[in-house]
């Protein structure tokens, strides 16, 4: 490794800005950070991405390809302590957790990488660290090295501001019931939530708060924050962010659309094996009319309970529209398989639905003309990817900040039809989440796909799609913001070099 590092350092001109990217190994965090790292490299920055071997696999080809094209970008691997945390080789990403037990083991393995990473920070002599929010300790590392730390947040400005506002003002305390509404303090729109829709660690102070609170606190101790967002989506919340968090921020999204602009979407993104040239789901989509199919996905982490899978299957079967549904299984669900197998067979015969097991080529699906809308868990990347394809959404948040994102889609941007979820619950929690019934699901689908209101929703999504394309063009806001950030970092490097040479002289 050290020989490699020396070589890498030799090949790096002294005037060049060297930025380290430290992603957290879960697709919702990694995808936007890798895209951002590649954008930095395309604009003249020397980039090192630190990750583990299994986590590098899904994007290594893209990085090698960028490198061959002359960009200074490389991956630096650290060893995942699989044996130490009792995991088989290659299980290194949060998305591999099929149970709470596995989730804790993987998270523990990731936290044990700290010492290796800190050594690399020293060896690689970066000019800046772009750190995922989940590593609050990088504030101290950057400060020891005398370089800026940039907080990389992989969701919306609105959700970050909501978390800060709720932690500070605790507006949900003192309400009579968990389902009473309160308004988020300091927001330009009267955004209403209930206590049940907040992540548990925000609702009450618990063990998990000890993990999350330092992350959010570390944001205001950073040089600045990077957001995969754009002005037409939430410029008002960028202002709120400035007043609540008090640091500079740059919105440079949508990064996925930007980095794939010239190449077309990457087929193999997020999975280890390359897909065939044309995945079967696309061949199936080719037989469908434009805008006639719903894409149903709950992101990279969520696995639904059997009761919920059954309701969703019935809801989709009877909603009157075609669908593609990605199903991720949980541990111990083998006995429940026969229902889904029969359902899959039935859908194959009627040609009404297509089931994808485990992992979908989401970017390819969303950009297919037959797709007319998405049922989404409101993960920020899925939202941006849908809007970049001009698609309206049925919102079905599950956990974490997804309920805040739902409010942005439904109340502010008006590009989402809510299915009506009431409770924020991690899929692997001990007690089961409330089950959304088949009628509620079918009702939301009809509203989106058939009603006048749905047409308006679609029109607004298309408008945002146009804006998302303009903002990443030369001269667009996101484009300018990225250039501004790179210039800021270069000036900082130059002024530090000047003051050092004054001291030496
Ligand atoms: N994704 C995918 N195929 C899947 C599930 C997810 O490619 O079957 C990608 C998706 O395109 C997005 C990311 O994984 O880039 C998921 O991030 P998001 O913020 O939407 O949700 P999370 O998985 O973090 O809940």
How would you describe this structure to a colleague?
The chain has 505 residues and is of the alpha/beta class. It has 20 helices and 15 strands. The protein has a seven-stranded parallel β-sheet, with helices on both faces. Strand 13 (371-376), helix 16 and strand 14 (393-395) form a beta-alpha-beta unit. It is globular, with a radius of gyration of 23 Å. It starts with a helix and ends with a helix. Uridine-5'-diphosphate is lined by residues 27-28, 31, 269-270, 297, 299-301, 326, 359-360, 362, 379-382, 385.
Strand order of the largest sheet: 3-2-1-4-5-8-9
Low-confidence stretches: 1-11
Ligands, deduplicated: uridine-5'-diphosphate
> If you compute it from the alpha carbons, what radius of gyration comes out, rounded to the nearest whole angstrom?
23 Å
Largest sheet: 7 strands, parallel
How many strand units? 15
Structural shape: globular
Helix/strand class? alpha/beta
**Please, what is the average pLDDT?**
93
- Strand fraction: 5-15%
The percent range for helix content is 40-55%
Distance between the termini: 35 Å
| Quaternary state of the chains | single chain
Question: Please, how many helices?
Answer: 20
């Amino acid at each position: 490794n050290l020989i490699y590092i020396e070589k890498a350092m030799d090949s790096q001109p002294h005037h060049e800005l060297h930025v380290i990217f430290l992603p957290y190994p879960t697709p919702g965090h990694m995808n936007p950070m890798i895209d951002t790292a590649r954008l930095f490299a395309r604009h003249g920055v020397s980039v090192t991405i630190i990750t583990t071997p299994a986590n590098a696999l899904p994007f290594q080809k893209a990085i090698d390809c960028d490198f061959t094209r002359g960009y200074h970008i490389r991956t630096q691997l650290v060893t995942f302590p699989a044996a130490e945390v009792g995991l088989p080789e290659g299980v290194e990403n949060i998305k591999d957790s099929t149970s709470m037990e596995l989730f804790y083991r993987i998270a523990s393995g990731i936290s044990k990488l700290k010492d290796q990473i800190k050594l690399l920070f020293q060896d690689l002599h970066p000019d800046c660290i772009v750190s995922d929010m989940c590593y609050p300790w990088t504030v101290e590392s950057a400060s020891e090295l005398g370089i800026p730390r940039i907080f990389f947040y992989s969701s919306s400005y609105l959700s970050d501001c909501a978390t800060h506002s709720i932690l500070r003002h605790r507006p949900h305390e003192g309400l009579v019931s968990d389902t009473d509404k309160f308004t988020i303090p300091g927001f330009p729109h009267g955004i209403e939530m209930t206590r049940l829709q907040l992540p548990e660690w925000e609702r009450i102070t618990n063990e998990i708060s000890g993990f999350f609170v330092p992350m959010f606190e570390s944001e205001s101790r950073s040089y600045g924050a990077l957001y995969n967002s754009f002005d037409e989506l939430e410029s008002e919340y960028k202002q709120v962010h400035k007043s609540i968090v008090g640091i500079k921020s740059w919105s440079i999204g949508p990064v996925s659309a930007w980095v794939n602009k010239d190449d077309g979407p990457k087929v193999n993104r997020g999975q280890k094996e390359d897909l065939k040239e044309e995945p079967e789901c696309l061949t199936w989509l080719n037989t469908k009319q434009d805008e006639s199919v719903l894409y149903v996905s709950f992101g990279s982490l969520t696995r639904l309970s059997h009761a919920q899978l059954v309701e969703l299957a019935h809801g989709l079967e009877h909603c009157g529209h075609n669908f593609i549904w990605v199903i991720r299984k949980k541990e111990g669900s083998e006995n429940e398989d026969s229902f889904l197998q029969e359902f899959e067979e039935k859908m194959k015969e009627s040609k009404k639905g297509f089931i994808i097991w485990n992992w979908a080529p989401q970017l390819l699906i969303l950009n297919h003309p037959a797709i007319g809308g998405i049922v989404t868990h409101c993960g920020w990347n899925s939202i941006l990817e849908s809007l970049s394809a001009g698609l309206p959404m049925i919102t079905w948040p599950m956990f974490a900040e997804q309920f805040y994102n739902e409010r942005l889609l439904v109340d502010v941007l008006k590009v989402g039809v809510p299915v009506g979820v009431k409770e924020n619950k991690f899929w692997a929690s001990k007690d089961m989440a409330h089950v959304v019934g088949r009628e509620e699901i079918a009702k939301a689908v009809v509203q989106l796909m058939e009603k006048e209101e749905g047409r308006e929703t679609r029109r607004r999504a298309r408008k945002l799609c146009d804006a998302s394309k303009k903002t990443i063009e030369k001269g667009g806001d996101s484009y300018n913001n990225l250039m501004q950030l790179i210039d800021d970092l270069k000036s900082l490097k130059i002024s530090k070099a000047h003051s050092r040479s004054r001291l030496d002289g």
